[in-house]
Structures are given as structure tokens and as C-alpha cells.
Write a structure and sequence with these properties.
Oligomer: single chain
Largest sheet: 8 strands, mixed
Number of helices: 3
Helix content: 25-40%
Order of helices and strands: EHEEEHEEHEE
């Protein structure tokens, strides 16, 4: 079993970071399909207040172990070539990217199935917490949906 990697990035995940990650795979010519999930902070309206941003926090060691366990399980279940997971910590404004998940394989069907399983497992199992900040300067802990 590989050692858990740190998946966390301070602040939002930039479009340039995402583009660079994709570009690095052009040399891997056995890959025929990629699937990408980008989680973006929504400006939800909750009880007449609009979410302005989310501050993400985690007990990083525990969360990285959970990400790693999910990663190993998905690799065992699906014939994927590679997988990358990045999650924001800290302040992320509405409209910015907070989760970037990227899977690759020789064929398209497996990346579609693997990515769905991966994102659902992350949402259900990883202890990452978000505090929603509203336009009226109040806040509340985010409920995952």
C-alpha cells in the first residue's frame, strides 16, 4: 500500500493548475479517456441569505488517510490508469473551484463509472468541513448534499 499523499491546496484551485494537470497527461499515450469533476462553491440562498464563500477545514492527517483509502479502493475496483484528487482548505469564494478530481484510463466507460464512485465516496467518507459565510456577515456549518 502506498503512503497517503497530501491532497490539500490552500485557497481555490486555479484554472491554470487544472490545465497544467491535464497537459501533463499528453505524454501518457496509453490513456484514451479522462474524466474530470470540478466542485465549485455555489452562491446558494438559505433563509434569505446568500453564500458569499466557504472556509474549508480538516484534520489533515485523518482526511488524507480517508482520501488514500478511497483512492486504493477505486484503483482496486476499476481498471484506471491514474487518479488525482485535490481539495481546497481555507477561504474559497462563490464561483471558485474547491474540489478537482481527475481519472484516466484506456477507455471511456471505466472513467465515467470510476469518477462517479470516487466523488460519492469523497462526499460520504472524508472529514472535510465547510463554514458557509453569508452576504450579511453571518455563517453556518455547511451540510453536504
Amino acid at each position: 500500500m502506498n503512503k497517503p499523499k497530501n491532497v490539500f491546496i490552500q485557497g481555490p484551485i486555479s484554472p491554470g493548475f487544472i490545465a497544467d494537470s491535464i497537459a501533463k497527461h499528453q505524454t501518457k499515450t496509453s490513456i484514451g479517456a479522462h474524466n474530470i469533476f470540478l466542485g465549485q462553491v455555489r452562491a446558494d440562498t438559505i433563509q434569505d441569505k446568500t453564500v458569499r464563500s466557504i472556509i474549508y477545514s480538516a484534520y489533515e492527517e485523518m482526511a488524507n488517510k480517508a482520501f488514500h483509502a478511497i483512492r486504493e479502493r477505486i484503483f482496486a475496483q476499476y481498471a484506471i490508469t491514474c487518479m488525482h484528487i485535490y481539495h481546497s482548505l481555507g477561504h474559497v469564494k462563490a464561483g471558485e473551484i474547491c474540489l478537482f478530481v481527475f481519472v484516466s484510463a484506456p477507455h471511456r466507460k471505466v472513467v465515467l463509472e470510476a469518477l462517479e464512485a470516487l466523488v460519492e465516496a469523497i462526499k460520504a467518507e472524508v472529514p472535510v468541513f465547510g463554514k458557509e459565510l453569508f452576504d450579511n456577515e453571518t455563517h453556518q456549518w455547511k451540510v453536504n448534499q
